[in-house]
Structure to design on (159 residues):
């Protein structure tokens, strides 16, 4: 009988402890107020755009007659197509070059071997320090440097 009484007291005591402990925890949670403070709003200031300064191209003044001056822009527009029998230049630049013969010390670009390039008749010879265009058609090019994305040529001679 003592054991039965002891079990009842222990079980009842445990139940009372659980119930009252839960109530005390509820009281504690209910008594502790929770205060949420909103954070101050974040203000993002956009950075000013970068300033890019490009120098203007210099101009060349060439006197044509005494007392008169002609202003020539130093960066004239690049022509779309140049047709010539012979081009003699220090540098030749283009997106594409079509020529029967190229004699040059330095050649940069993808070279495509062709049988013949028909430039047509009656084209003038060009002699200049720099020849530049989107496309160049010539029977012969003699230059120190030839630079193009694509070079279609029958005969290539490296000087």
């Amino acid at each position: 009988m003592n054991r039965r009484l002891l079990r009842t007291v222990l079980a009842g005591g445990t139940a009372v402890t659980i119930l009252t402990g839960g109530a005390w925890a509820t009281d504690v949670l209910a008594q502790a107020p929770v205060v949420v403070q909103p954070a101050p709003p974040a203000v993002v200031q956009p950075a000013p755009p970068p300033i890019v300064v490009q120098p203007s191209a210099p101009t060349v003044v060439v006197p044509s007659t005494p007392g008169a001056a002609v202003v020539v822009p130093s960066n004239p527009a690049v022509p779309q197509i140049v047709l010539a029998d012979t081009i003699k230049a220090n540098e030749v630049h283009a997106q594409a070059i079509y020529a029967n013969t190229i004699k040059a010390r330095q050649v940069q670009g993808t070279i495509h071997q062709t049988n013949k390039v028909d430039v047509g008749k009656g084209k003038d010879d060009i002699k200049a320090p720099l020849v530049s265009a989107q496309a160049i058609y010539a029977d012969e090019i003699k230059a120190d440097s030839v630079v193009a994305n694509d070079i279609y040529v029958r005969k290539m001679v490296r000087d």
Summary: DSSP finds one helix and four strands in the chain. Strands lie at 59-62, 70-73, 81-113, 126-158.
